[in-house]
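Need the bound structure for fe (ii) ion, inputs here:
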Amino acid sequence: MKDSNQNGQPLDSLDEWEDDVVRRYPEEAHKAKEDFRNYEAPARDTVKEFYRINHINQTYDFVLEKKNDFLKFNRREMSLWDAVEFLNTLVDDSDPDIDLDQTQHLLQTSEAIRADGHPDWFILTGFLHDLGKVLCLFGEPQWAVVGDTFPVGCAYSDKIVYPEFFKQNPDYNNPRFNTKYGVYSPNCGLDNVQMSWGHDEYLYHIMRDYLPEEALYMIRYHSFYAQHREGAYEHLMSPHDHKMFKWVEKFNPYDLYSKAPTPPNVNELRPYYEDLAAQFLPDTLKF
Ligand SMILES: [Fe+2]
Ligand SMILES: [Fe+2]
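Answer from helper R.:
Posting the output first, comments after.
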């Protein structure tokens, strides 16, 4: 393994994080609908180091700072397809023969949703759900782009992966933030809760005026495994959140388990996805 800790970018590839989520939540267990976490196989050191940096740095103030900066959307204006191609310029250090490129992951997710006969907005959501990862191309470190997400501003749940690393997060010892509810009130609703910063929250804000609420929940909370797989934050959720999380749960297996044996043909599918985008989105989006 190469020495990765120097640059604060421990993962060889962003996919390493997602591969680890699949390791934690294997498809067999999902199909069997068991409440099951795979603690057996240890994560790669790179993944553990990734979470160490993530958990130390994702504080309440950090999230507000990033939102203040990135939600100005003053970096780039692109059509959906341009954004997909831009994201695909993300070059990971891992072996390109083994890992799918970003476009393939998006298309495999959306094509699996389409094959199951879901509505157009659901297919489009699958196709664009990870576009927020362009944050990496704006110079953001991996730990502020990918990884499991979780609320900040209240106690970090021990159901979050590697909870021990939160002990070094400054909010861990701050009485304003380290109680069960922290700055929030019981069942205040997730829209009132600050989530750790990354590609999910960023893309939600880009899409919020264009897609149905179910789609926006899928985008915003797709990496919130501590809730949609572990139920760790019921105390902050409203009855409406619970209703909407059915959609997040419906989406999740397509994200994790849709690696097709034959990769989708990007050029053949492009016109279909451009038409789909035109149904819901403006010609260009601000990033
Ligand atoms: Fe994602
Ligand atoms: Fe994804």
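Comments: Residues 5-286 form one domain. The pocket of fe (ii) ion (ligand 2) is lined by residues 105, 129-130, 255 (CB under 6 Å).
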